[in-house]
Amino acid sequence: MTQMNFDDTPLVIAGKAYHSRLLVGSGKYRDLEETRLATEASGAEIITVAVRRSNIGQNPDEPNLLDAVPPNKYTILPNTAMCYTADDAVRTCMLARELLDGHDLVKLEVLGDEKTLFPDVRQTIKAAETLVTDGFKVMVYTSDDLIIAKELESMGCVAVMPLAAPIGSGLGIRNPYNIQFIIDELKVPVLVDAGVGTASDAAIAMELGCDGVLMNTAIAGAKNPVLMASAMKKAIEAGREAYLAGRMPRKRYASASSPLEGAIA
User: What is the pLDDT of residue 60?
Assistant: First the structure.
């Protein structure tokens, strides 16, 4: 059997290399056992944790999420979900750093609207400036605006994470051209965050050239989360390989699969 070889590099975030380009959330599962099984099936190495919704040690009498996704096995990525101001987001990151013994890699999201969960860009920039100055390594959820993405990169964010559709919507990649602009211009990793609903969405994001994809609801909200996590793992890998392979050009007209030269008249 011929061995398939292709050149690739690992996903590097804040100086650390990862084999998986799929990042997964830890919320919305039925229980911690389902969280554990789905996380394992995904092959993900970076797991986001909503500090305001999850117990990671602040409530010692309650089940601890870190028992299902232990920090010695995964990179825990505290996020600021449910924060609507820069000050709240900064405080949440401070709490996470205290609970996780100085952990400084965080996912910043400052929401501006309760219905769409679109980011408040002004508050996001304000929080990012404070956190970067304070030594945090900030992965930042933002709009699909190239100018904002470049500003977040220039201020020192270690990854920029534009939405592909509203959080939890499952609508898929609604803005491929805007995401492509960001991928083409930024040097830090660009990861799609929000909007993925099924495996084909994840593959499309990777085919665009995204460095990775973060998702939660697409897995946790599936009828079989563990099986969907496995499907997402394969989709990320297939999309990445397709991107590296280089797709055929799009054409307006048909083109024969077999060459016409030498055909019998």
Answer: 85
